[in-house]
Amino acid sequence: GAGVSQSPSNKVTEKGKDVELRCDPISGHTALYWYRQSLGQGLEFLIYFQGNSAPDKSGLPSDRFSAERTGGSVSTLTIQRTQQEDSAVYLCASSLFLDIRETQYFGPGTRLLVL
Amino acid sequence: DQQVKQNSPSLSVQEGRISILNCDYTNSMFDYFLWYKKYPAEGPTFLISISSIKDKNEDGRFTVFLNKSAKHLSLHIVPSQPGDSAVYFCAASTQGGSEKLVFGKGTKLTVNP
Fold first, then answer.
1. Could you tell me if B89 lies within 8 Å of chain A, comparing CB atoms?
2. Cβ contacts of B69 within 8 Å, gap of 6 or more
3. Do B89 and A42 touch (CB under 8 A)?
4. In chain B, which residues have pLDDT < 70?
5. Tell me: the pLDDT tens digits for A24-81?
6. pLDDT the model gives residue B75
7. Beta-carbon neighbour count of residue B95 at 10 Å?
8. Torsions phi, psi of A52, nearest 5?
9. Candidate from B6, B41, B99 with C-beta closest to A48
């Protein structure tokens, strides 16, 4: 079946604007994860969902970041009042269920550039 | 403070030879380790994992070794192929913990024909 898809693939925005990033996980996967990769850095964990619930939001970099998941499927990561340091590749992953030993399948990412 | 470190940003090897990618970690609570491979403009792809109850796990050309006392793991690729050229990320986590993967910065492997 289809893999994890993310949209848009690229986003250029001006500082101060809000952006919304979308993730469509693999059908049937109950767990969903968001990461970001800044230039020259490793992947930084942001948040995970078990179903529609996100038990731990402490990985979100600031209160300008929020995420939601509806219907146990699509997830949206919203960044309000974007700053230049938000420029990064935002990656979404899903797994069949929530267990670190369960393979996480990644999407291609959304490349965000804040001018 | 970086909990997972990949100190070599890049590695170049000849086709057919062994590639050894290294990873060090500082958090003694980590007990599950993974390697991911990433091609440009694609998301990372899971390669191989190892639990702390083992010191070696093998899958075809890929073998991961874990040295818990040294807090060190390595990925061996034998024989290396040009298609293995990619960025390799080491990741670590705690089973039964926060389900959070902590990644290193990656090592770019180039396999020359």
1. yes
2. none
3. yes
4. 1, 97-98
5. 999 999 999 999 999 888 899 999 999 999 988 888 999 999 999 998 899 999 999 9
6. 98
7. 14
8. -95, 5
9. B99
